[in-house]
Every structure is written in C-alpha cells, then in structure tokens.
Design a protein that fits this description.
With 282 residues, the chain is of the alpha/beta class. The protein is built from nine helices and 15 strands. Helices cover 31% and strands 24% of the residues.
C-alpha cells in the first residue's frame, strides 16, 4: 500500500515538473525568434512568433532542416502554421517534403510557377493530399502573426502556372516587422530583379537584418544592398561549395557599409531574437 502511495506521489511530482517546465518554456517565448538554419548549400529559416505560431521559409537541400525545426520548437508542438516556398529550386525545397509529412501544416505560401522538379512535384502532391491551404502572395499583401507583420514586396505579377527561364527571379521577397525591428528575406533574387524591386518598393527596403540574396552570389545590386542598409547580414551557404559563394564582391560590399556578417558555413546556425525594440544574436 505504501509503495502504491509512493509511486502515486512521484507521478504527481513528475507531472507537476513537466507542467512547470512547459510554462517556463512558454514564458521565454515572448520574443520573436528567427533561426537561419545550418543546412549546407541552400536556404532555410525557421521563425517562432511570440503568439506561438511558426513559419518556415524554405527547407534546404536535404532533411537537415528537420533538426533545425526540432531544436527550436517545443517537443510537444507538432503544428507549424505556415511554410513559405520562395521558389522551387531543390536547394530551397527538398527538406520541406518531410516537414509536410511529420508536422501539421495550416498553410503554404508559393508562387505556383511551373518547374520540372521531382521533389517539387511530390511536395505539391502532398499539399493536395493533405488538403493544405495554399496562398499565392503578391506585392502589397500583409499577413499577421499576432503583432508581427509579414509584408510581401515581390512578386508583383502572377506566376501561377507560368513558364520562366530563371526561377531565382520568381523568389518571394518578404519583410518581417516586429515593432521597429525589420528582417528582409530575399530568396535567390539576382541583380536585375533586385533593381526592379528597388525601383518599385524603395521606401520599404531598409531593414536591420538582411538574409543576403542567393547565398552571397556576385550577381547582386550594390544599390539594393545600400538601400537595405542592414546592420546584420546573414549568408546561408555550404562549406567549400562549387559556386564560390559567398563572393568576394558581396563580402567587401557588406564590409564597406559596416554590416556585421554571419555565415552558416563558418558558425553554423544563426539565431536572432527581437522584442520589438531591440534585437540580438544568441
């Protein structure tokens, strides 16, 4: 009888400890947390909002993104509100397939551009199979995650079912704003497209944190970077990649404007938190 009471008492203590741990974890989630995942030569950023929503922007070239997501959300949380596919190149989408299969996803942002890619076809099939809501964002659209806003700066045109020669330049470009702190996500846009965005949305570009376009390719617009004028620049890139990313040109440009640059090939995962007034690197 005493053993049963003892086990019952221990069980209650264990449950109480778990509830306290969960409450403590949630209390720490008052800030916006943006994680630039270390996934090699590709892009993936995982965002956890103060209201407990999550957004995954791209999924990298393999399933490494699963580790990034798993480390940065509570173990008991199996729901991700949104996934954004900036464009359908393999180095941005491959890991998304398993994320769709392992987590409950409410909605997916995508342009719908035509692209012959086996992984992309599987992703679209999985979205349809699960009846996940799809959103085709256009410039000017604003999506809210509690008090945090996601404003679309590009595309300005409808790419749904369109054939294009360069999918990089169909990339969704979005600005995430938490109070006075702004993050700019640029996909793989090239110099020509960044100049077009600069001409159309110049006043919206300035941001404290920039996800540097196309892994730091030398095909970039100096004027675009100067207008963004980021205090922190993140380059998602793989070690000793065959493309020579990031280029010496972009690194020198960021140095000249005194932007603190973090590279995933050098330091791994990069985490930036903000409370709407200040921001800091973990």
């Amino acid at each position: 009888m005493k053993n049963k009471i003892y086990r019952y008492f221990i069980g209650i203590l264990l449950i109480a400890a778990i509830l306290i741990w969960i409450a403590a974890f949630q209390d720490k989630e008052e800030n916006l947390k943006v994680v630039f995942c270390d996934i090699g030569q590709g892009d993936a950023a995982f965002i956890r909002f103060p209201n407990q929503d999550e957004l995954l922007i791209d999924g990298g070239p393999d399933n490494s993104v699963l580790d990034c997501v798993g480390r940065n959300m509570p173990f008991y949380d199996r729901k991700i509100r949104s996934i954004m596919i900036t464009h359908p190149d393999a180095d941005h989408i491959t890991g998304i397939l398993e994320v769709l299969r392992r987590y409950e996803i409410e909605e997916v942002y995508l342009t719908g551009v035509n692209h012959k890619n086996l992984v992309y076809d599987k992703i679209l099939s999985e979205i349809k199979k699960q009846n996940i809501k799809t959103i085709n964002p256009r410039a000017g659209n604003v999506y809210k995650y509690g008090e945090v806003k996601l404003k679309i700066l590009y595309p300005t045109e409808n790419y749904q079912n369109q054939e294009v020669t360069n999918t990089n330049n169909t990339s969704i470009v979005a600005k995430l704003s938490s109070g006075s702190v702004d993050y700019l996500f640029t996909g793989d846009i090239t110099e020509s497209k960044s100049k077009e965005i600069l001409a159309q949305n110049s006043s919206l570009l300035p941001s404290e944190i920039l996800k540097v376009p196309h892994h730091g390719s030398k095909d970039f617009s100096k004027e675009f970077i100067e207008k963004v004028n980021p205090e922190i620049s993140i380059i998602s890139v793989g070690k000793k990649n065959r493309y020579g990313h990031p280029s010496k040109e972009i690194l020198e440009m960021l140095r000249k404007i005194r932007s603190k640059t973090y590279r995933t090939d050098e330091i791994g995962e990069v985490v930036i938190e903000s409370n709407g007034k200040d921001y800091w690197k973990e």
